[in-house]
UniProtKB/TrEMBL annotation, chain A:
Residues 83-294 form the ABC transmembrane type-1 domain. PROSITE patterns: ABC_TM1. Keywords: Cell membrane, Membrane, Transmembrane, Transmembrane helix, Transport. Belongs to the binding-protein-dependent transport system permease family. The keyword Transport applies. Pfam families: BPD_transp_1. This is Carbohydrate ABC transporter membrane protein 1, CUT1 family. It is found in: Cell membrane. The keyword Transmembrane helix applies. One of its GO terms (biological process) is transmembrane transport. The chain crosses the membrane at residues 27-48, 87-108, 120-142, 171-192, 228-250, 275-298.
UniProtKB/TrEMBL annotation, chain B:
Transmembrane segments: none annotated. Keywords: Transport. Belongs to the bacterial solute-binding protein 1 family. This is Carbohydrate ABC transporter substrate-binding protein, CUT1 family. The keyword Transport applies. Pfam families: SBP_bac_8 (PF13416). It comes from the Archaea.
């Protein structure tokens, strides 16, 4: 009997791993099936809809596929404006949040008193929902709000602006609020990075006579690369999803100066019932997210971290 | 494995579809005396304050009339109705709508009628008695494609100009004497000179300014020009549109300074309560804010005139109920729609909502003095132009784009760009 089993194994070298595959099925299959269906299935279906030209409340016509929706995009000023804004938001928000977060982390790391209190204070905004932060930043930006009152108080009243009404500042106002909300998160990521650098490095640099500035610039910050990459990916994905914030602040029609792709997508699909065009915008958004996450996932995979 | 999931996926998607009955017309569907009613599910967004009370009063009246029918309220609050719109559209596309739902009548319905998703309720709901009681404007928006598909439940007026009596007296302005939107601009200058805000307004979201512009166009150039606009013939009235936009830009000089950081109309309307601003344009729901204030009396402290130049008009913003196909409860739905068209229903609903009944034969006893005046104005009105901001006048995809044009307008106050955006909204 044993010899028979061995000979079968020899004939089919895969059978051992095969049995693993089947035996482990109950553990991974339900979750995998649900993810495939509801995440990848929905994404796939969305891509298909973007090729159909479906609009109105009837049923989509799956017999006739066209690229018309994608062809419309470059000549649609609203789409182009929201694409531009999305990219601007992505770059500015991510860049500044990282710099502010790093700065905070370096300060908090200097063995200050009440360290954990500061940490909590800086991290707290992230725990709030976009709905809450959008409403109170609206108050902050109001013409008699905190920001203008503060500027007036310190004699810089001439700097106060119509932050949410002037197209030059609208998007910037949104970005600043988002930075406020997420730089605490960057701080935590950097702080973890800083804590994992062995003390020897600091001591060795000191013995070699490095100044504080040089110490950080040459020794510490270069070692924070993986923290930076990790935080960047997370921030960028949040930036693409800033929908809630803008929706609460301005509604579905924020105007070209603050429109982003996610809001345009919602408006096209659910206000105008231009389902196919909305789906096409969703595909563009998805592609943007993939270009951000793809290289990261690939390098992580190469390094064996996935 | 993948194929199996694919098959499951398709089955699941297909499962979302279907449901409810699919008869071509109501005669085949309805029973005169059914043994049992299915539960009546009503989609709506009346979930707070007076709106909630109005809806509850309506349901109470219906349940008194039809104790056998169970009512299942299905609210989707938020986003000034956009949450409900999203829910309803999804369910209608899945062919799984509620029994009936709240929707703007008029062109907002064309999305549904284009795909033949609503039953013609002529005869079953609309009859001669009902037609008799309705003015032309509300009747027209109940049959956007010629067939009656909606029952209006309320009317909000949009061509209102509210004012603080003390402030206009201080500024020596008589609102009754203003004959056109241009006159109003001069009045605002006088108010400004007297040290008050000319017009309270919110400009963080676009709809209030879109409403205001529509009244300026109506008041300055009349209903025919307005009709050309909503019919998409913008070239014929280009100079009027540009001039009215120009006028709104001039108005904006007299808005409160924090207009652009105000998202809610009621924040702006507070300027009237506090006596900081003279004028306020908004739908007549704003009156509820003033009526609720202590020591702030209609006629003495605050008052109302039709928006200058729109005397004799009653600019309509309405809600209605419809009979969607694939209906889960046809026999209950038809009875609810019949009830919504009665004086009893409209008399219960509207005083809480702060609106007036679309029927002209409803007793005005239960209404506030302000609404009684509005009802008298409505009955005497010769024209009832439908609202472009609230979906009555143009199809939803156009309405979204027009609102987009105004979202840019309140950013840059650029008349040329806004005109071009308006033109492309109708493409």
């Amino acid at each position: 009997m044993d010899s028979l089993r061995n000979s079968i194994k020899r004939l089919n070298p895969l059978s051992a791993s095969d049995s693993d595959f089947f035996e482990s099925m109950p553990f991974w299959l339900p979750a995998t099936a649900l993810v495939l269906l509801f995440v990848y299935g929905a994404i796939g279906w969305n891509v298909i809809i973007s090729f159909t030209g479906w609009s109105g409340l009837g049923q989509p016509d799956y017999t006739n596929f066209t690229l018309e929706m994608y062809r419309q995009m470059p000549s649609d000023p609203n789409f182009m404006a929201s694409l531009r804004n999305t990219v601007a938001l992505l770059v500015a928000f991510t860049g500044v949040s990282l710099v502010v977060g790093l700065g905070l982390a370096l300060l908090v790391d200097r063995k200050i008193r009440f360290e954990s209190t500061f940490r909590t204070i800086y991290l707290l905004p992230m725990a709030l929902s976009f709905v809450v932060t959008a409403i109170f930043w609206s108050w902050m930006y109001a013409s008699n709000g905190l920001i203008d009152t503060m500027l007036n108080g310190i004699g810089l009243g001439w700097l106060s602006q119509d932050w949410l009404g002037d197209p030059r500042f609208k998007l910037a106002a949104v970005i600043v609020a988002l930075i406020w909300q997420f730089s605490g998160y960057c701080m935590i990521v950097y702080l973890a990075g800083l804590r994992s650098i062995p003390n020897d490095h600091y001591e060795a640099a000191r013995i070699d006579g490095a100044s504080t500035l040089k110490l950080y610039w040459r020794i510490i910050i270069p070692q924070l690369r993986s923290s930076t990459v990790g935080a960047t990916v997370v921030l960028m994905v949040f930036a693409l999803k800033a929908f809630d914030f803008i929706y609460v602040m301005f509604g579905t029609n924020p105007g070209r100066s603050a429109d982003i792709l996610a809001v345009t997508m919602y408006r096209e699909a659910f206000s105008s019932s231009e389902w196919a065009y909305g789906a096409a915008i969703a595909v563009v958004l998805f592609a943007l997210a993939l270009t951000i996450i793809g290289p990261y996932a690939y390098t992580q995979y190469k390094r064996g971290a996935l | 494995m993948l194929q199996a999931t694919g098959a499951v996926g398709l089955a699941a998607f297909a499962g979302c579809l279907g449901g409810g009955s699919e008869a071509g017309n109501l005669d085949e569907l309805l029973e005169d005396d059914p043994d049992e009613f299915e539960a009546l599910e009503i989609g709506h967004w009346w979930t707070a304050g007076g709106e909630e009370a109005a809806f509850e009063a309506l349901i109470e009246g219906f349940e008194a009339e039809y104790p056998d029918i169970e009512v299942d309220s299905s609210p989707s609050p938020g986003g000034a109705g956009s949450a409900l719109e999203t829910d309803i559209k999804n369910r209608v596309v899945d062919q799984n709508p509620p029994s009936t739902f709240q929707i703007w009548p008029g062109q907002a319905l064309t999305e549904y009628t284009d795909e033949d998703l609503l039953y013609d309720i002529d005869g079953h709901v609309w009859n001669d008695e009902m037609r008799e009681a309705y003015l032309d404007g509300p009747i027209d928006v109940s049959r956007p494609d010629g067939e009656f598909v909606a029952v209006p439940i309320n009317i909000h007026r949009l061509n209102n100009l509210f004012y603080n009596v003390d402030v206009v007296e201080d500024a020596d302005v008589d609102p009754e004497s203003l004959e056109s939107p241009s006159d109003l601009l001069e009045a605002m200058e006088a108010v400004d000179d007297a040290g008050f805000v000319g017009m309270a307004q919110q400009t963080q979201s676009a709809w209030s300014t879109m409403q205001l512009w529509a009244q300026v166009l109506l008041g300055e150039y009349g209903a025919d020009v307005y009709d050309s606009f909503i019919e998409g013939d913008l070239e014929a009235v280009e100079s009027e549109i540009r001039a009215s936009l120009e006028l709104v830009v001039e108005y904006s000089e007299y808005f409160n300074e924090d207009a652009s950081s105000m998202n809610d109309w009621d924040d702006a309307s507070d300027y009237i309560n506090t006596g900081d601003a003279a004028f306020f344009h908004q739908g007549d729901w704003a009156a509820g804010q003033y009526e609720g204030e202590d020591d702030f009396e209609y006629g003495e402290d605050w008052d109302h005139v039709p928006f200058p130049g729109t005397d004799g008009m009653y600019a309509l913003n309405m809600d209605s109920f419809v009979f969607p196909k694939h209906n889960p409860s046809p026999n209950a739905t038809v009875r609810f729609l019949q009830y919504a068209g009665t004086t009893d229903a409209q008399e219960r609903f509207n005083p809480h909502k702060g609106s007036i009944p679309p029927r002209t034969d409803v007793s005005d006893e239960a209404f506030t003095p302000f609404l009684q005046d509005q009802m008298a104005d409505f009955e005497a009105s010769t024209e009832q132009p439908p609202s472009v901001t609230h979906g009555l006048a143009v199809a939803p995809s156009i309405q979204t784009d027009v609102e987009g044009a105004f979202a840019n307008f309140i950013d840059n106050w650029d008349v040329d760009e806004t005109y071009d955006d308006l033109v492309s909204s109708f493409d």
